[in-house]
């Protein structure tokens, strides 16, 4: 394992805790990306974590100006978080576009007339131009030329992605459902969440997919979004203790591992980083754990139990008695104003189940949860990752929230659904075939949501 690269990621997270501190949602986003990469890479290699690299599922960029989670970035994608690409389908003339058209003519010859500038992905400020093939005056997403041109008109980067569409039958756009109908399908994903750090009630849209413009079927796609899905289970009452969960030194880490049911003595190796350090721990029975904390405060950033090599699987219906026992064992670390917990996603790997617990207000989840690992054989909590700590603000009344439909209208005003063709594999024949879909371009990051009271379009 490349421990240096791994620590670099966590050091970035620790750096963000300095003044001005990042919002809790940013830190939770980083943790989720790290977890997703662990799961994805773990299917190929039995490692706790493979560091993120450009071209993989996500890239984390930390700077003094904020944290950006570049979700779903491939090696051919260029993203500038400071600039929003042109969103109008009717693009004004621009020298960059004209230069791109000349380059396309040189490459595609007579076929160049079949291509048009994709205004949603192109950016005249950065000289980034994407030109997609068109059929029935509709863009084909999987057939495109990408150019990067400087202000002097010099061409720097050229990327080509083409597919032979000869003989393909493209669906008639006249048969497409109205855009409003597609927006209603999209809006069904909206969910209410509270942000304690902002004192805000907001609608988030975790929708991930394309909507078939003719049948209404949803074709799932991978898009990063924190998982606040709740398991159908009654709220779990708790008796909070208000104790801070920290491990600033080996003595406190030793105490935690004893509390989590591991048998001492422990062998500790401490990896120091910039602002963080990681306790690598091994028990007498060769069990291995890792605990990463902020050096200055001891706040826990990450915890890993790496002794089970089975595949992790989703657990849609965990046993209520296991969930209640896990909550009972860690409730002393909950803030004193916590009355109950909601259960989010649950997974199982061997005999270890992992639960996501959320505090709630008026029955609505509060962003930033507790990740709790529970040994179902021993009925023992074996690890806890608390949410990023920040000062909380009073939360508004959910009864004053706008409707889901109104929030959806605000969202699609900023991220409109576009009618496009996508080449998708036919599961029966294995061949690509065009589908007419309503597509949302998630080319700009980070995530956005709608303030449920004001209707403001706000960034995480």
Automatic annotation (TrEMBL):
Annotated transmembrane regions: 47-71
The protein, known as: Peptidase
Organism: Brevibacillus fortis
Lineage, opening ranks: Bacteria, Bacillati, Bacillota, Bacilli, Bacillales
Keywords: Membrane, Transmembrane, Transmembrane helix
């Amino acid at each position: 394992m490349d421990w240096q690269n791994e620590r670099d990621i966590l050091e970035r997270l620790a750096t963000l805790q300095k003044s001005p501190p990042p919002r809790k949602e940013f830190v939770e986003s980083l943790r989720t990306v790290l977890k997703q990469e662990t799961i994805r890479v773990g299917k190929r290699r039995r490692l706790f974590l493979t560091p993120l690299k450009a071209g993989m599922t996500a890239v984390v960029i930390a700077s003094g100006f904020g944290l950006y989670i570049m979700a779903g970035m491939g090696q051919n994608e260029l993203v500038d978080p400071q600039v929003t690409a042109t969103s109008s389908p009717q693009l004004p003339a621009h020298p960059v576009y004209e230069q791109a058209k000349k380059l396309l003519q040189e490459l595609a010859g007579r076929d160049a007339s079949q291509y048009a500038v994709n205004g949603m992905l192109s950016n005249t400020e950065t000289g980034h131009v994407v030109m997609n093939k068109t059929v029935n005056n509709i863009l084909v997403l999987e057939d495109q030329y990408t150019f990067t041109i400087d202000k002097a008109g010099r061409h720097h980067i050229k990327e080509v992605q083409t597919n032979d569409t000869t003989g393909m039958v493209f669906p008639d756009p006249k048969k497409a459902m109205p855009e409003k109908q597609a927006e209603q399908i999209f809006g069904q994903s909206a969910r209410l969440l509270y942000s304690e750090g902002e004192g805000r009630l907001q609608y988030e849209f975790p929708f991930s997919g394309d909507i078939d413009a003719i049948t209404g079927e949803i074709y799932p796609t991978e898009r990063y979004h924190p998982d606040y899905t709740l398991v159908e289970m009654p709220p779990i009452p708790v008796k909070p203790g208000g104790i801070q969960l920290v491990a600033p030194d080996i003595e406190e880490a030793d105490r935690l591992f004893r509390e989590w049911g591991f048998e001492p003595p422990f062998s500790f190796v401490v990896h120091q980083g910039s602002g963080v350090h990681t306790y690598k721990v091994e028990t007498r029975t060769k069990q291995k754990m890792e605990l990463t904390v902020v050096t200055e405060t001891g706040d826990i950033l990450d915890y890993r139990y790496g002794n089970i090599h089975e595949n992790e699987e989703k657990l849609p219906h965990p046993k209520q008695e296991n969930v209640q026992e896990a909550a009972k064992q860690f409730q002393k670390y909950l803030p004193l104003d916590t009355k109950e917990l909601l259960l989010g996603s649950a997974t199982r790997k061997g005999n270890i189940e992992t639960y996501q617990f959320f505090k709630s207000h008026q029955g609505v989840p509060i962003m930033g949860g507790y990740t709790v690992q529970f040994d179902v054989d021993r009925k023992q909590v074996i690890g806890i990752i608390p949410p990023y700590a920040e000062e909380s603000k009073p939360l508004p009344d959910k009864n004053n929230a706008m409707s889901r439909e109104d929030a959806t209208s605000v969202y699609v005003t900023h991220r409109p659904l576009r009618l496009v063709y996508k080449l998708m594999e036919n599961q029966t024949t294995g061949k690509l075939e065009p589908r007419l879909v309503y597509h949302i371009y998630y080319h700009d990051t980070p995530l956005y949501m709608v303030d449920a009271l004001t209707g403001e379009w706000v960034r995480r």
